[in-house]
Each structure stands twice: as structure tokens, then as C-alpha cells.
Amino acid sequence: MPTPAISVAMSVYNGERFLAPAIESVLAQDFRDFEFLIVDDGSSDASPQIIQRYAARDSRIRPILRENRGLIASLNEMIEAAQAPIIARMDADDICRPNRFSKQIAFLAEHPDYGVVGTWSEDIGEDGEPLVRTGMADHPLTHEDLLEAIEVGGQLICHPAAMYRRDVVRSVGGYHAAFRHCEDLDLWLRLASVTRLGNIPERLLRYRRYPAQVSSRHATEQQIGTAVAQAAWRERQAGRPDPTETLERLPPIDELDALFGRPGISRQVREQVALGLRYSASAMRDEGFDLLVKHVREGGRRDGMWRTVARLLRFGEPLRALRLAATLATSG
């Protein structure tokens, strides 16, 4: 078999609800020279059967059915298994526009100095209905724009809309195990020092938003990982070693000063996470709330904290609203 131009990489875990339209949107691409790697990461629903059914119809699909190892292990496995020099990421709950691959591979052919290219996305709901984007900026276009976004903590590249050169990603060690639920941000930050990254200003991916998706269920862990990844980026920019590179898991926030070898990192990360979680209902119902309270008690920034009390009431958390109010009233 000739080497395909693109390897599509999709990991699935209990994704039966949206899996069929996601697969069909890949198979319907107007650029057809690809293999389609689909890892079923130990699903207990009908995902393996759905994958096998499509694999029987289309020889481009290479199914990998096994026990659960997690998304990062699945992504690194597909990078190693890929036969093509270009990898297109795809999630099991999103939908590609038919010209997504042709637009992206043309961009990479015309811009050999770019190792990664994403696209803008269109938000959809559980039933595929368009969602109105409110207060969300589109992803930056050029590498220079992306570097500016890094400095202010902005969005970089939508992970399931990304296409990248396999050898460039392998050169930085692929996805790092410690950054669960923000493995893409950590990868973009590491790649930004060795290649150029950008986005195509067309909405070539329909990105599904719903309460059960990872970004909703793991908001606190995602925000902590994001803050640590950005701290590691600043270390590398300053010419210091990245202490997160070989970690399997991130340590608790209180241990970050010891990990980075200097004071202030723990407080900095806690403040960033606390201020970022104020708007997340799921985070305010889990350990994110305790993190916020500790931040206030230690004299951290109180921007909008009284509005957060009101928000907790709207979230149906009156006792937590009372606790935060009491903390604000008694803390300097």
C-alpha cells in the first residue's frame, strides 16, 4: 500500500452518541488520501461495534481496540502508529467540514516553516444546533499573533481542528503525561519554540459543546494544568529547565515552589486558577471552590469575588455562597 498523505487520529471513549457523524464527516472529505486511525480506549458502550462497522465499509480506517489507557497515551500511540508525515486530529463528538483536510494540507504545503495549522470553529450544541458565540475571540492566525496570545493567556489552536507534521511533534516528545485535559496547550507551548503555528480563518470544524464533555467535567484540573503549562513556558523562555517534562502527574499546587525551585509559583498558579474558575458551575461545585477560598484567605486578588457569591446562589449553592461571603468579610 502506498504511504497516505495524512493520518487522521481519533481516540474514542464511550463516544457512541456522536461517533457516527464524526466518522462520516472524516470519510466525506474532498481530500481522500488518508488513513484513519481510531483508538477505542476501553469503551463500555457500543463505540467498538460502531468503529468496526465503519472499518468493514472503508479500508482507510485502521481500528485499534484495547483496554483503557487514557487520552494522552492514545494520542502518543497514534503518533507512533501513523504512516503519513502529516497528522490530522479529530475528536469523536465534532464534525469536519468537507474541505477541512484539503485546506489544511494546502496550507502546510505552501508554508513549510509551519509545523501546525488549525482552523476556526463553529460551536454547535448536543443536537447539532448552531450556538451563538458570546465574548469568545477567534483563534490567532499567524505565529506572531499566537506568540502574543501566549503572553496574555489567550486561545491558541482548537485541538480537534489541528493538523501537524508528525516529525516535529515527535521531536518535542509528543504529548506529556502530566497535562491531562490540557495536553494540547502544553504541546503548542513547547512547539512554539521550534516551529511556527497558525490558524486558517475559516470555520472548518463544527465543535460540539455540551455539559458532559471533558472541558465541563474536569474544569478545575484543566485550569490547574493550563496555569502550570504556562509557568513551564515562562521557565523555558527564561532559559531555565522545564521541571514538568518527565512528570507523570502534576504535584499539588502547594508543592510547585519546590518543583520549580523558587518561591512564588504556587501562589501565582493558585491565583490564576482561582480567577479563571469563578464562572464555572462544575468547578464551583468541586475542589475548585476550596481553591478559590484558600486564594482569598491568603490575601489574593478579590476581583469580582462578591459577584461570585451571587453566582454561587444562581448555581444552587447557597452554603458555598455563604462561606465565600464570610471569607471575604473576614479576610484582609
TrEMBL record:
Q: What EC number(s) does its UniProt record assign? A: 2.4.-.-
Give every Glycosyltransferase 2-like domain span.
7-172
Which InterPro entries does the UniProt entry name for this protein?
Glyco_trans_2-like, Glycosyltransf_2, Nucleotide-diphossugar_trans
Could you confirm whether the keyword DNA repair appears in this record?
A: no
State whether keyword Transferase applies. Answer: yes
Keyword list, A-Z: Glycosyltransferase, Transferase
- The organism's superkingdom is given as Bacteria
One example GO MF annotation? glycosyltransferase activity
Annotated family: Belongs to the glycosyltransferase 2 family.
Kindly provide the name given to this protein in its UniProt entry. Answer: Glycosyltransferase
Which species is this UniProt entry from?
Novosphingobium mangrovi (ex Huang et al. 2023)
